[in-house]
Structures are given as structure tokens and as C-alpha cells.
């Protein structure tokens, strides 16, 4: 049987329960054998000013803590450890996974916000030789369906109600002293507090 592997790409700054529910929902809907979370090398999302300076190692460790209790979830360092390049390009992520899993069917999962500039991604047309794309979206998000219809058919959009939680809001709450219990796993509440993250 061909293995079906979900590759969950994101900054995870920090990982929250919306990401975990999304991974679980996509795994069930597409009958995936496992979902591998892949934190990006850098915390700076391209083309955005809303950044936090949390080192990749903190984002990676929080992702490991959050995924630890789910036997269907794994975490990969493939992008965090990628030498040289300042940013993470999904084509490189997919090539790495293709090398490790030459016969598997790959599903790249990430936030539907990427649709805004998806066609500008490095080697855009080749991305679909490697994987199907499952773009998860929050309730009320504005999806440009006409634009989506012009893109390759290997892209699907799935609404995840739990994605009402966002990393931006978690960071903001920590910054102003509001609780983040139940928005992120308990271990992440403790990790953030212990390491004084997001307070500057
Ligand atoms: P981001 O800045 O962290 O996230 C942008 C938006 O999408 C945020 O609203 C975010 O919500 C949401 N999101 C991101 N990842 C998600 C996930 N796995 N599940 C649910 N929602 C998610 O991330 P990004 O910079 O857009 O990158 C996302 C992925 O696309 C990464 O794997 C990145 O390497 C890849 N990417 C590749 C290229 C390229 O190849 N040229 C360009 C851009 C992005 P939260 O803040 O709540 O997570």
C-alpha cells in the first residue's frame, strides 16, 4: 500500500490548538498515515511586518511538545536544519521529503493565506509534481474562489473552525498578560512562561 504522508508547514510561532486540530482533521479526511509538522527555518514570515524574534529552536521544541501525545503526528527538523538559505522554500521541503519517502503520496498542508502570493513561490509549477496542497482556513476568512479556480487542481481548501485561534493572538495575549490556557497545549503555556517568550 502506498504511504500517504501529510507535511504540515508553518512558522508555528507558537504552535496552537488550531494547528493540531487542523492536522488531525486533514489526516482523517485524506486518510493519511501520518502528519509531519515542519517548522520553517526563520520566524520572519516573508512580506509581513508582524514578526516575532523567537529562535527556530524554541519554535521547533514547542512543536515537539505539542505533537508528543499524538501517535499520528511527527516533527521534522528538515527546514530548521537546512543550511545556507535565509528562508524556507516549499520546493526544497518537498524535494527533501521525496528523497526520504520516494514512493509515498505527499500532501502539503498549510494556511490558506498563502493564496495571496502563491504563484510567486519558487518553482511554483513544479510544486504539484511532488504533492497535493491542502490549504486550511479560519472561519470567516476571505477566500478568492475565482483566483483559486485559475490555479492547478491539486489545491483544496478546508475550513477548520478551531483555526479561530491564531499565533498572532496568542503572542498578543502573552504580551499583555492575558491567559493562553486552552488555546495552546498545557506544555506550551508552561514552555512560554519558563522561557519568557513573547514578553518583549
Ligand atoms: P505564517 O506567516 O506563519 O502564516 C501565515 C498565515 O497562515 C497565518 O494566518 C497562519 O496562522 C496561517 N498558517 C500558517 N501555517 C499554518 C498551518 N500549518 N496551519 C494552519 N494555519 C497556518 O506562515 P507562512 O510564512 O505563510 O508559511 C506557511 C508555509 O508556507 C511554510 O511551510 C512556508 O515555508 C511555506 N511558504 C513557502 C514559500 C515559498 O516556497 N516561496 C513562501 C511562503 C510560505 P498562524 O499564525 O495561527 O499559524
Task: Report the β-strand fraction as a percent range.
Answer: 15-25%
* Spatial strand order of the main sheet: 3-2-1-4-5-6
Q: Please describe the biggest sheet, giving its number of strands, its sense, and whether it closes into a barrel.
A: 6 strands, parallel
How large, in whole angstroms, is the Cα Rg?
A: 16 Å
Name the hetero compounds present: NADP nicotinamide-adenine-dinucleotide phosphate
Please write the string of helix (H) and strand (E) elements: EHEHEHEHEHEHH
Residues in helix, % = 25-40%
Can you tell me the overall shape? globular
Quick structural gist:
This protein is an alpha/beta fold and 200 residues long. It has 7 helices and 6 strands.
Amino acid at each position: 500500500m502506498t504511504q500517504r504522508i501529510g507535511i504540515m508547514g508553518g512558522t508555528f510561532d507558537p504552535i496552537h490548538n488550531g494547528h493540531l486540530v487542523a492536522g488531525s482533521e486533514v489526516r482523517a479526511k485524506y486518510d493519511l498515515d501520518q502528519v509531519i509538522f515542519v517548522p520553517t527555518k526563520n520566524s520572519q514570515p516573508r512580506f509581513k511586518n508582524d514578526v516575532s524574534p523567537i529562535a527556530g529552536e524554541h519554535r521547533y521544541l514547542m512543536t515537539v511538545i505539542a505533537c508528543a501525545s499524538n501517535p499520528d503526528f511527527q516533527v521534522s527538523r528538515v527546514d530548521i536544519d537546512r543550511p545556507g538559505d535565509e528562508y524556507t522554500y516549499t520546493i526544497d521541503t518537498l524535494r527533501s521529503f521525496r528523497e526520504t519517502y520516494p514512493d509515498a503520496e505527499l500532501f502539503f498542508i498549510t494556511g490558506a493565506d498563502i493564496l495571496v502570493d502563491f504563484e510567486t513561490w519558487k518553482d511554483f509549477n513544479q510544486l504539484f509534481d511532488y504533492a497535493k496542497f491542502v490549504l486550511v482556513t479560519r472561519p470567516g476568512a476571505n477566500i478568492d474562489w475565482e483566483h483559486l479556480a485559475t490555479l492547478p487542481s491539486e489545491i483544496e481548501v478546508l475550513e477548520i473552525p478551531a483555526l479561530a485561534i491564531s499565533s498572532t493572538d496568542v503572542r498578543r495575549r502573552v504580551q499583555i498578560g492575558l491567559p493562553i490556557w486552552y488555546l495552546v497545549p498545557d506544555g506550551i503555556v508552561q514552555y512560554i512562561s519558563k522561557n519568557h517568550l513573547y514578553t518583549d
